[in-house]
Specification:
Layout (H helix, E strand, L loop, with lengths): L11 E5 L2 E5 L5 E6 L5 H6 L5 E4 L2 H10 L7 E3 H10 L14 H4 L11 H4 L6 H16 L4 H24 L1 E2 L2 H12 L10 H13 L10 H10 L9 H4 L7 H17 L1 H7 E2 L2 E2 L2 E3 L9 E3 L20 E8 L2 H10 L2 H6 L5 H8 L5 H13 L4 H13 L1 H15 L17 H11 L5 H43 L22 E5 L3 E7 L3 H20 L8 E6 L10
The structure holds a DNA duplex (12 and 16 nucleotides).
Length: 569
DNA sequence: GCAAACCGCGCG
DNA sequence: AAAGCGCGCGGTTTGC
């Protein structure tokens, strides 16, 4: 018999509404308590080894951060539920069939300062969470590969913690540096409403080339008509098509479009709206993309142009540690297919050069287009023509993506390496497919059905690779977070107040973009942090692929500002 | 008059 | 030497 329940340390702690419930490792309730908002730090520190459980990290965890504390481990019931519903590792009969109160509340909820998610939609009581955790643990423990599924759910939940923490910490952003770039590229800011100086001048040049001083440059249909009038017979105004034309309007117009994009997407208005106190605080949405990738909401965090990277600037005495994985997706493909030849080609920093060395293709560029074509399902163009060569060189890897495409075309489901299942086809898709098999079907309908099937095949082909890459990245992030938390805090950091949460007094994650992380670190810890990021990549590879010899090399740059040039061009 | 749909382009 | 995947956003046009 174990000791009295009240004295046992909880393994799980559920937080909902105004209550906290502690559970032991078996899920037996150890005790219930009222939640005390005045002592969040005490609630955390008195349960050093627990895993915190809640319905929605984005709704609950900001209160912890605002109170100056963090948690080591979490279980996000909403994110886990979405995975368990579709995972092929879970017995199909045990998966949920009908939507219920959880699903109505299960729209991706952004991480934000407001706690509106708590009052939006159906309210879940703490007993609902106790029951849901029990159900999810049973599904996970009984899964075809429990360890693998558990890794995915833990990584997913760790990602949710990190998303909230990165929002709270903010990305160090130098308004003056950003404005210098704007002025250099666009010219001085003009009176309100008017475009900046250089843009006005360039617009005049474009209009002169169009022979129309009143030509509209910002409306694609009008611009298209203007182009046709001067003999530029393009079908659209997109850049790649214009670039093929020989006409004096092309060069200034492309330049103008670049400027207009910078102004509207990341101009002074963006700075005013998104940068406060030297921090850009985007809203991250973990698993906001169907493959498991993160999405973002507001501020275009995942689309910051490289042009503006130098505006990312560390605080005085701190540095930016910027790391990205070289060719993450093909490496992940080699790992999941156990393709030893591809893994050999991936040894070293440049997988594309490794492929050239096998003799499959002649140049690095060819290798790149062949690999992209293989993962995206290219059928034509230079990329499509190169794919068969890859199929001969790496049959195991190619069989995996080719099978995924075939399954998708046949309305089937595919899965990532850790068990995130792809969504089923939509009803309209199924209806079109069955319509095309009926007798006497119109040829046009059959063609639409075939195209729609191939579209889905390209989706499932890419799903397994993109989704597994997202899983690798979650493991990497979680490892980095854990290792950074072991570093000593810099108590007298000059920016401790400005950075807000207490965890920001030590090196902390401030940005994540699919295969790249940025850590804001005290300069004295720069080398330690760089080593942590590299070790975490190795650890993530082991967690995902065990002893299979696939490398995940990084480009790492340490500097006061973003956009630093790394050794690998 | 408002919202959905479309375009074009930024990111991986 | 592409036109194959996944996104968000601002601006304009289109549809009700």
């Amino acid at each position: 018999m174990r000791a009295a329940a009240v004295e046992a340390a909880p393994a799980w702690t559920i937080r909902a509404g105004s209550e906290v419930v502690d559970l032991d490792a078996d899920g037996t309730v150890l005790g219930r308590a009222a939640w005390n908002p005045a002592d969040v730090a005490g609630a955390v520190s008195s349960r050093p080894d627990t895993r915190w459980v809640w319905a929605d990290t984005a709704a609950v965890y900001p209160e912890f951060l605002a109170a100056g504390t963090r948690v080591d481990r979490a279980w996000d019931l909403r994110l886990s539920r979405r995975i368990l519903r579709l995972s092929p590792l879970v017995d199909a009969a045990a998966r949920l069939a009908a939507p219920d109160v959880w699903d109505r509340a299960a729209e991706p909820m952004p991480v934000s300062d407001a706690l509106f998610a708590l009052t939006d939609g159906p309210v879940l009581g703490v007993d609902d969470l106790v029951a849901e955790l029990s159900r999810q643990r049973a599904l996970t423990d009984g899964a075809a590969d429990a360890a693998r599924l558990r890794l995915l759910l833990h990584a997913e939940s760790a990602g949710a913690l990190i998303a909230a923490e990165m929002h709270a910490a903010g990305l160090p952003w130098d308004r003056a540096a950003h404005e210098r770039i704007l002025v250099e590229v666009l010219g001085a800011r003009a009176a309100s409403g008017a475009p900046p100086e250089k843009m006005q001048q360039l617009a005049a040049v474009v209009r002169a080339a169009l022979g129309d001083p009143a030509a509209s440059l910002d409306s694609p249909p009008k611009l298209l008509r203007s182009l046709h009038r001067v003999g530029v017979m393009v079908a659209s105004t997109s850049r790649w098509e214009l670039a093929e034309q020989q006409h004096p309007v092309v060069e200034p117009l492309l330049e103008y479009k670049k400027m207009a994009r910078l102004l509207s997407a990341n101009g002074w208005g963006w700075l005013d709206e998104w940068v406060r106190d030297g921090r850009f605080r985007p809203v991250y949405i973990p698993a906001g993309v169907v493959t498991g990738r993160w999405a973002s909401n507001g501020g275009g965090a995942l689309q910051i142009p490289r042009q503006l990277r130098p505006a990312m600037r560390a605080d005085p005495g701190w540095v930016i540690v910027d790391a990205d994985v070289a060719q993450l997706e093909p490496r992940v493909l080699a790992g999941m297919s156990r393709d030893a030849r591809m893994a050999t080609a991936a040894r070293g920093l440049d997988l594309y050069e490794g492929i050239v060395a096998t003799g499959a293709v002649a140049t690095r560029e060819e290798a790149k287009y062949a690999v992209l074509g293989a993962m995206y399902g290219a059928t034509s163009g230079d990329s499509g023509r190169l794919v068969p060569r890859l199929r001969r060189a790496f049959p195991a890897a190619m069989a995996l993506v080719d099978d995924a495409a075939r399954i998708g075309e046949e309305a089937g489901a595919v899965s990532t390496w850790l068990g995130r299942g792809s969504p089923p086809p939509e009803d309209a898709w199924l209806a079109l497919q069955s319509l095309s098999t009926e007798e006497g079907t119109d040829a046009a309908v059959s063609e639409r059905a075939r195209r729609s099937a191939r579209d889905r095949g390209r989706f499932t082909r890419n799903y397994i690779v993109q989704g597994t890459a997202a899983e690798w990245a979650l493991c990497w992030l979680a490892e980095i977070r854990h290792r950074l938390s072991q570093l000593p805090a810099v108590v007298d950091a000059p920016t401790a107040d400005r950075s807000g949460p207490a965890f920001a007094r030590r090196a902390h994650l401030v940005f994540f973009l699919h295969d790249e992380v940025i850590v804001h670190a005290p300069a004295a810890q720069a080398e330690q942090v760089a080593a942590i990021v590299v070790e975490a990549a190795t650890a993530a590879g082991r967690r995902m692929f065990g002893t299979f010899p696939i490398d995940f090399p990084l480009d790492v740059a340490v500097s006061p500002a973003g956009g630093a040039v790394t050794a690998d061009g």
